[in-house]
Write a structure and sequence with these properties.
The protein is mainly alpha-helical and about 280 residues long. Among the domains are: about 100-185; about 190-205 and about 215-270, Fusion Protein Consisting Of Minor Coat Protein, Glycine Rich Linker, Tola, And A His Tag, Chain: A, Domain 2, CATH 3.30.1150. About 50% of the residues lie in helices and about 10% in strands. The protein contains five helices and three strands; from the N terminus they run ααααββαβ. A three-stranded antiparallel beta sheet has the order 2-1-3, with helices on one face. The longest helix has about 80 residues, at about 90-170.
């Protein structure tokens, strides 16, 4: 403790006004800091203010502000079905729409009917043309057939005329109006049957009473000179006595007369009745 007292005794004396100096130093630093802060802030505000200056240019130009980014548009949200409002349709609009639909249907129906009518008319014309063509073809065929028939008849007629002419030149025995082609007629003349009956009937002996006038047909066979070589009953009269009388009369006659051409048919059928 003695040493400490001795040190303080020999220490330099304290500087007068120390506290005042510290306060002044603090106050000076505070003012300096405030001045610096105000100076920095003043320079910062001066940069955003437009400054006019005299330039060596014909037109003064002011700088444009910095480009700002545009904000994206808000998203479009779908409108719910419940929020949609149906368009208001009036009765006049409904009537007009129905009238349009009716006219459209009528137009389609009319076009369909017109088409069907045209198709029917076309089919009718085609059928008529086909029928006319078929009728013409049939008429042409008939005409051809008729022409062929006429030509055939004409050819037959010419052939018959040629045959008649040739047979006439060869000595045919037919009359001028004869139409045959043979030199002599194959059958008897029209009067020959009566001549034979007239020859045989006187030889018939029949005395019985008979009802009606029954006819007995007899086939007679002869030789070229007219001699009867056979007879046969081909159809009975129904009266046996009359049939027998006819057959006996033929046997009794023995020879038949010659025809107009001098010939006697080899076979002929003669009918006999009791009342002729």
């Amino acid at each position: 403790m003695h040493a400490t007292t001795d040190r303080l005794e020999f220490a330099p004396p304290a500087t007068p006004g120390l506290l005042r100096s510290v306060i002044l130093a603090v106050l000076a630093h505070t003012l300096l800091v405030t001045a610096l802060t105000w100076g920095v802030s003043w320079k910062h505000d001066a940069q955003t203010v437009a400054i006019e200056a005299e330039l060596w240019a014909s037109v003064p130009v002011q700088a444009a502000p910095p480009l700002a980014e545009e904000a994206p548009p808000p998203p479009v949200l779908p409108v719910p079905e419940s929020a949609k409002v149906a368009p208001v349709v009036s009765n006049a609009d409904i009537a007009l729409e129905r009238e349009k639909e009716r006219k459209a249907k009528e137009k389609l129906t009319k076009e369909k009917l017109d088409k069907e009518k045209r198709d029917k008319e076309k089919l009718s014309l085609e059928k008529k043309a086909a029928d006319e063509k078929k009728q013409k073809e049939l008429a042409a065929q008939k005409a051809e057939q008729l022409k062929a028939q006429q030509e055939t008849k004409l050819a037959d007629k010419r052939r018959q005329e040629n045959i008649q002419r040739m047979t006439g030149l060869a000595g045919a025995s037919g009359g001028p109006s004869a139409t045959g082609t043979a030199l002599k007629s194959a059958g008897p003349s029209a009067s020959y049957a009566g001549r034979i009956i007239a020859r045989i009937k006187p030889n018939i002996v029949f005395t019985e009473e008979i009802v009606g006038n029954p006819k007995a047909d007899v086939e007679v066979r002869t030789s070229p000179d007219g001699t009867i070589v056979g007879r046969k009953l081909v159809k009975s009269s129904g009266n046996k006595a009359w049939d027998e009388a006819v057959l006996k009369a033929i046997d009794k006659t023995e020879v038949l007369p010659r025809d107009v051409d001098g010939q006697v048919p080899s076979t002929l059928t003669i009918g006999f009745t009791p009342r002729d």
